[in-house]
Specification:
GH; two-stranded antiparallel sheet; three-stranded antiparallel beta sheet; 147 residues; alpha+beta
């Protein structure tokens, strides 16, 4: 029964990756501001006169000034793209290790592997994807045609 928030970013990113990879529901991606867990009643960041602070964007596209902007996290926006590419494709090639590692394809359009164990995922998997080279969009972006 734990609520996953941006404060535990690894778990939050894994949860969003699964949510965006699985073909279910109409989704909403959270984009929020920081607040102390002991004061969850606080509103958005404000300046000295009570006006809401502007969202300030960093060079890496993340936010500052008290804003989190989870929708700008590479892992989140790339998985939103994954969901769009995989739209209409069924789940295939399911694999799990019986613990905290899973993998599956969405037809022959997309494949995801998720590891929530404390050790590496060293397994050969059937992806269902056409032969070729693919980018790990969770760990990085495709830039100038390269991963």
């Amino acid at each position: 029964g734990e609520i996953i928030t941006h404060k535990k970013s690894r778990a939050y990113k894994i949860g969003n990756a699964f949510m965006l990879a699985w073909p279910y529901a109409n989704l909403k991606i959270m984009s929020s501001y920081d607040f102390p867990l002991s004061q969850d009643w606080l509103g958005p960041p404000t300046n000295g006169n009570g006006d809401t602070k502007d969202v300030t964007i960093n060079p890496d596209d993340t936010c500052r000034n008290g804003w989190i902007c989870e929708h700008r996290w590479r892992q989140i926006y790339n998985m939103a793209r994954f969901r769009n590419v995989a739209n209409g494709q069924s789940v295939r090639n399911w694999w799990d290790n019986g613990s905290n590692q899973i993998a599956f394809s969405r037809g022959n359009k997309a494949f995801v592997a998720i590891n929530n164990d404390d050790y590496g995922m060293d397994v050969t998997l059937q992806t269902g994807m056409p032969a070729g080279q693919y980018c790990d969009i969770i760990s990085g972006n495709k830039v100038n045609g390269s991963c």
